[in-house]
Amino acid sequence: MQRFRWYFLLLGWPVAIFAPVALSLTLMPIAPGWQEFDSVGFSYFLYQVHWPITVLGVLGVGLGTWYLWKNARWFTRVLIVVLILLMSAIHVITRTKMSAESMFNEPSVVKRTLVGEDVAARDTTVYLWVECNHQLAGYPLDLVAHHHKIQDTVGGIPVLVTYCTMCHTGRVYSPIVNGVRETFRLVGANHYNAMFEDATTGSWWYQATGEAMEGPLKGSVLTDLPFAQCTMAEMLTRTTTRSISIFQADAATGTRYKWSHGYAYRHGDTDPGLNDRTIVIGIVEGGKAKAYPLRDLVERSASSTFLVDSIDGHEIVITLPRQYTDLVDIRRDSATSTVRIQPYQEYWHSWKHFHPTTTVWTKK
Q: Which tens digits make up the pLDDT trace of 304-353?
């Protein structure tokens, strides 16, 4: 054992830091190229076995230190101390500063404040709106962007309000899984889309699709809930509900979400053409997906109020937005139809990845 002391130390050290470093690279956009790979399977497997690997590495470092320390010169002891401190720092940093769950903290208290519709005219905040059982709840997009997910109950209905800042998309799901209300935590991202882990089975779910990609529930899909992304004034034009409440930042979050202030008004690539950061309005109708570049819809609004199109034989009518943050209203058959189609606003790179067979509307 004595003659292998250096092997224990120098091989144990990289083994001890392998899991946290590899998980940070694959689950966080530190090295953007990693986000392009389908690395969820590798990340999920490594996450399941990261503690045994780490313990094995730490044992190697411990054995090497045990056999080296007694007769080691001062510079060898300094090297050992530096390696141990560096190893410890990597573990601490990857679980705090470089942890998605820590960076984009879950609100410790989910609180909404009732407001009157008289504030609508002067409130320019863009919200994600959820309406259940005649109750209307607004979640400031800047706050949802920071948290990435807010787990709440609206009108007695559990809701999971989500937003991914790397693909610029909001989604609202029912957190009911197999008949039971599930809780989720943010674990990181792949293909620039946030992934959540459920507390019961540890399965990993994509934010953009609500599909479980790894774990015991792989292949399961969360139920979509309708939502709107707009200001309060715009929302009040499409609902008769007047019980309005607004989500508030909690004390634990404080001012940590300052980085996302104004996020709702940050636009993607508005240059001609279809680039990765071009914002599109995506819809799925009759099992078919189609994307509408938001830039082109805004430009068309200068000469038209509506855009009439068809998907899979279904006629749809889009009320054209006059600016990037306007409400995009889509209905089936006519502009006055009561059948609304859910629009999803996100970057083109996200929409095309999660809807590989999508078509794209092009302006004439």
A: 999 999 998 889 999 999 999 899 999 998 888 889 999 999 999 999 99
Global confidence as pTM: 0.92
Q: CA–CA distance from 124 to each of 60, 121, 250, 264, 304 (Å)?
A: 58, 8, 21, 11, 25
Domain ranges of the chain: 2-98, 111-263, 268-360
